[in-house]
Design goal:
Layout: E1 4-6, H1 27-53, H2 59-80, E2 83-88, E3 96-100, H3 107-114, E4 117-122, H4 131-137, E5 141-143, H5 150-163, E6 167-170, H6 191-194, E7 201-208, H7 216-219, H8 228-236, E8 241-247, H9 257-271
Parallel strand pairs: 1-2, 2-8, 3-6, 3-7, 4-5, 4-6
Antiparallel strand pairs: 7-8
């Protein structure tokens, strides 16, 4: 069951003992879950497409419908996959700019369920069957990272989204990791905050699996040479896991994007709870 519990004490995740891998993913459970997930994604995507169709006639209601579709999709995905969510701090209210560390494709439904936002995503997602359609329908801003000048176009779109009343979420690490550390932040998109004077919010994501399942850095985090479909189908075969989100108590700003990147990384490091057990190295 998808739950949201506000944490009043530190979780102490960094000191969690290494779980002993025992259970293997259940093909039956994965088969049971995949149909409802596809149906739910299709339904929410249809609502988001409808929102786009009425945008010119009613921009306010259109934005509300799109947000409803995206938030509902995120909550539904977490529920169907048996994810329990614990939240520390308060999610920002739109319009906002929010950065977090990046561990998995599960970060997207997790943050979508908690914030009214649009995401900045790599251009390749646009072509993924099903997910690409949903991403376009909920106004995802796509970036071609191999083209340095594309950041200028993306910065303009981020500003347009914020001016329209949306929150914008992006991952300045620019890639996912196994959750052993916060990687260096690439500062290009932080210009969205620098050039407008907009303070930026930050958050930290972490995951944990039950003791009898493989550790989260192996089955939830998506990194290295892992292939999406086999990884996702295996994840569907586990009964569930926990997701932790900590939203920073303050916002950060700077007149220089490199300075802002350094301040954000310091803040992220301070709240970071490693996914990789200490024993795993």
């Amino acid at each position: 069951m998808w739950t949201r519990r506000i944490m009043t004490e530190p979780t102490g995740l960094g000191n969690a003992p290494a779980p002993t891998p025992a259970a293997k993913p259940s093909r039956l459970l994965a088969a049971i879950r995949i149909g409802p997930l596809l149906a739910w994604t299709t339904a929410c995507g249809a609502l988001a497409v409808l929102a786009r169709l009425v945008r010119r006639l009613a921009p306010g209601p259109s934005r509300y419908l799109r947000s409803l579709a995206f938030v509902s999709w995120g909550k539904g995905v977490l529920t169907l996959m048996g994810v329990r969510v614990e939240v520390r701090g308060k999610p920002p209210q739109p319009p906002f700019l929010l950065v977090t560390n990046h561990l998995s494709y599960m970060d997207v439904p997790l943050l979508a369920s908690l914030t009214r936002c649009v995401f900045v995503s790599k251009h390749e997602v646009k072509g993924v069957p099903g997910l690409g359609t949903l991403a376009r329908a909920v106004d995802t801003i796509f970036i071609q990272r191999e083209r340095a000048r594309d950041a200028l176009r993306v910065l303009d779109q981020m500003e347009e989204a914020r001016n329209a009343g949306d929150g914008v979420v992006f991952f300045p690490e620019s890639t996912t990791s196994r959750g052993d550390r916060v990687a260096a932040l690439k500062p290009a998109l932080l210009d969205a905050a620098v050039r407008t004077g907009q303070p930026i919010h930050y958050g930290i994501i972490s995951y944990r699996t039950p003791p009898d399942l493989p550790p989260a850095h192996e089955v939830v985090c998506w990194w290295g040479d892992m292939t999406f479909l086999p990884h996702f189908m295996a994840l569907l075969g586990y009964r569930g896991f926990k997701a932790y989100v900590t939203f920073g108590a303050e916002t950060l700003s700077a007149d220089d994007r490199k300075v802002l990147a350094a301040r954000l990384r310091t803040a992220l490091d301070r709240e970071f709870a490693p996914v990789v057990p200490r024993e795993a190295g």
